[in-house]
Amino acid sequence: METFVFFVAAAICLAGALGVVLSKNPVHSALSLVGTLFGVAVLFVAQNANFLAAVQVIIYAGAIVVLFLFVIMLLGVDRAENLSVDPLVGQRAAAIVAGVAIFALPVAALATTGWDATGAIANLGSVSDSAVPDVEGIGRVLFTRYIFALEITSILLAIAVVGAVMLAKKSPKAADMIVDLPARPTSTDADAASADATSEEGTA
Amino acid sequence: MELLDLVWLIPALPLAGFLLLVLGGRLLGEPGAGWLATAMMAGSFGATVAVFVGLLDRPEEERVFGQTLFEWMPIGGWDIDFGFYVDPLSVAMCLFITGVGTLIHLYSVGYMHGDVNFSKFFLYLNLFAFSMLMLVLGDNLLLTFLGWEGVGACSYFLISFWFTDPEKASAGKKAFVTNRIGDWGFMVAIFACLAALGSISYDEILSGAGSLSGTTATLIAACLFVGAIGKSAQFPLYVWLPDAMAGPTPVSALIHAATMVTSGVYLLTRVNPIIAEADTWIQPTIAWVGAGTALFAATIAVSQKDIKKVLAYSTVSQLGYMFLAVGVGAYVPAVFHMITHAFFKALLFLGSGSVIHGMHEEQDMTRMGGLRKYMPITAATFIVGWLAIAGVPPFSGFFSKDEILLYAWAENPALWVVGLVTALLTAFYMSRQVFLVFFGDERFTVDADHDAHTEVAAADEGDADTALDTEGAEAEALEHPDTAGAPQHDDVHVLHAAPHESPWTMTLPLVALAGLAIVGGAIQLPFTSDLHFLADWLHPVLGDNEAHIDVATGTKVGLAVVAVLAGLTGIAIAYAIYLRRMRDPIEPAILEEGWRYDRAITSFMGGPGRAGFEAASNFDRTVVDGAVNGVGALVRRSGGGLRGLQSGFVRNYALGIAGGAVLLLAYFLAQVTL
Amino acid sequence: MLLAAGVEPSWYLVLASALFAIGATGLLVRRNPLVMFMCVELMLNAVTLTFVTFSRMLDDIGGQAVVVFVLVVAAAEVVVGLGIIVAIMRRRPDATADDLALLKG
How far apart are CA B377 and CA B359, in angstroms? Predict the structure, then answer.
C-alpha cells in the first residue's frame, strides 16, 4: 500500500516541480507548486508525520502560495517569460550540469552507505510508538529542548513583519532607495513576453 | 606632622604660580605677576628650609626620605610611582635652586620692567623652577627625565623669549636640538636600567647597582654621561650655551649658569654607585672631557667682546671643572663648586644684566668703560664675583676650585696642570672683563644735547621715552652726519642717555648674592675635618664612592699657593694689558670665533651631512615608499583583474554557490569512497 | 516487483534529491524573481522531506521538530522576499533578475 502511495505522490511531486520550472507563466508555476506541496504532504502522512502534513497544506499551500498569487495579481506581472533563450551565455548549460550533479552526488553518497541513514540519534522521542502521537512528541521537544530556538523564531517573525511593512510602504523616496534602475531600452524580450502573455491568457 | 612631609610643597608652589599665571597673568599685569611668581619661589624656598631642618633632625643613616604621591604608570609587572626622593643631595640642590631662584625672580621684576610679555616671562620662569625641582626631587629616572625635558622646554621658551628676532628664535632652536642628542643618551640609559634591574626608582637602582655586570653598568654610565654632556654643555655639545645668551639676562643667570646646566653634574653624582661599578675607563673619560672643556672654553672666553658671551664660555669652563671633579671621584668638591658657582656666576650674570640695562641694551664691552662711577653697587658686587671666580682667597670660588685641583693632583698631575692653566685663563679673562667694563676710559659719549632731556627720563624711570630718544638721535644723525658717524669708527659709542644704576629690585639680589659669594666657601672649609660640613652632609649619598686622597698638608698648602699665584698672575697680565696698556691685546680672530667650531659643524652638516640626509630621504622615497606603493599597485591590479567576476547578475552568483555546493559534495563523496 | 519489495526509506531521499536538483536548476535558469522564489520553496520542501525521512529511519522525533523551524524561516523569508519584489515591481513591472545588475564590478 505504501509503495503505491509513494509512487503516486512522487509522480505528483516531480510533475509539479517540473511545472514550476518550465511554465512560462508565473501563475502556472504557482499552481504547479501547489501540486508539489500537496505531494510532499502526502509523503509526510505516509511517514507518520501527520501534524507536519497538516501544517504543510495549511501554511504552504494555503498561505504562502496564495501570497504568491496575490502578489502576481497585484502587480499584474502574469506575463509569460521567453524561455527559449538565456541572455547569460552558458548559464543554462552550466545550470543543468550543476543540477544533475546535485542530484547524482547525494544519491551516489547514499549508495555507498548501503542505502541506509547513518548518524547518532538524539533520543528525543520515538516516531513509531503509536502510544505517543506525533503532535505530542513534537510539542514536547519544541517546548523543552528547543524552547529558546522557538522563542527566537517569534522575534524573527516579528522582524520579518516589520520589514515587510517598511518595504511595502508607499513612499516614493523609500522606493528610490531600494532600486534606482536605469531606464531600460526597448527590449524585444519584454515585447515578446507581453505578446505571449496575452495569448496564454486567452488559452487559460 | 613631620617637617619632611612638606616636601611636596617645594615643587607644588612654583607649579601653582605657573597655573595661576596661565589663568590670570594678563589680569595681574606688570608688577603683580612678577610679585606672585617671586612669592611662590620664596614659599618654595621656605618649604625647602623646613625639609632641610627636618632632615637635620634625623640621624645620619636615616636621612633618606621617600614620599609617594600616587601611582603614575602601572604597566604590567612594574609600576612607576610619582614620588619624591629626599636625601642630603637633593635637599642641597633644592636649597640653592630655590634660594638663587627667588633672588633672580626678584631681579627679573626690575629687569623685565616695561616688556609687553611681562607676565608670560614669569609664567615660564615658574614652570622652569617646577621642572628643575622635579628633576632634582623625582624618585625615579623617568620623573627626573620629565623634569629634564621640562627644563629643556623652558630653556627653549626663554632663550627665544624675544622670538620676533630671528637670531634669538634660532638660538632657542639650536639649544633644543643640541639637547635632544643628550636626551637620547638619557633615554637609552633609562631603558637599560629597566632591562637590567627591572626598576628605575633610585631606591632600587642605587641599592641594586652592585649586582650589575660591569658591561651593563658601563653602558648605563656612558649613556647618562652623554645626557649630562648635552645638558651641562660639555664638549662636543657645548655649542648651544653661548648662543643661549640671546635670552633675557635673568634667564642666563638662572638657567644657563646656576641651575639647569648643573643638572648633568647632579645626575652623575646621583648615580655614583653605577659609575663605581662601571669599567675603569669611564671616570678618566669624564675627567678628561671636563678638563678639556674647561681649558677650551676658557681660551675662547679670552677674546669675546660681548659681555654675556664671556660669561657664557666661562660657565662652560666652570662646568668642565665640575666634570673634572666627578671624573676623579671628587663628588663633594663637584657639588661644592656647583653651589659656589651658582652664587658667583648668577651674581656675574645679574651684574652684567644690570650693566646692559644701565647702558640701554648695549652688550659690547669695547663700548663701555669707567662704569663704576655710574653704577657703584653693580660695580662693587661684580668685583666680588670676579674675585670669587678668579680664586682669590677668602672668596668662595677659591675654596671650591682649590679642592677640585687638589683631587685632580692626587689622581693625575696632568689633570692638575690643565686645571691650573684654566684657572690662570679664568682670572685673566674675568679681569679683562672687569677692567673693560668698570675701569679705564669711557669709550662712549653721552650726547650733550640730550642730557637735559634724559635727566627727566631717568627721573621718570620710564622706558617709554626711549622711543622718543631714538627718534631724536636719528634726526640728529641726519642733521650732522659727520659728528654722529665719526665717533663710532673710533669705538666711541654714542649713548642717548647717561648710564644709570638699576632699581632696588635688581640691586638687592646683587648684594645678597655678593654676600653669598664671599661666605659661600664656609660650607666646606679645608682647615680641619670638623669644618667639612658639606662632606659630612653628603656622606650618606656618596658613601665609599667618594675618592680618598692621601696628600701631605705641606703639599696641600703648596698647591693652594700655586693656584692663588696663577690667579694673581692672570689678574696682573690683564691689568698690564687692558688698564696700563703696556701691550696690545692678544685677541686672535680664531678665538673670537670659538676655534671655528660652530662653522665646522655648519660646513659638515651643510656638506656631507646634507648629502647623507638627502640619501636617506631618497631611500625613503624610492625603497620604502616604493614597497608600500608596490603593494598598493599589486592589490589594485589584481582587483582590476578580478572585478570581471562581479557581474552584477544574481543568477551568476547563484551559479557560483551551486558550483561550490557541488564541489563540497564531491569532496565528501571522495572522503567516503576513497 | 517493486511493489512487492515494499518501499525503501532511501527512495524518499532519492526523490528529495531530485526535487532539490530541479529547484536549484530552476533558480539558475528562470529570470522572473517570483518564479525563482518558488524554486527556493521547492528546495526547502526537498529538505523538509529528507528531515522527515531521517526522522523515520532513525526513529527520532527531532527531525520533525526541525521541520517546524524550517517552516517558520521559510514563512519569514517569503514575507520579506515578496516585500522586496513588490517594491521593485511597483517601479518596474517587467523587471527580471538580470536587470538588477547595478552592483556590477
Answer: 15
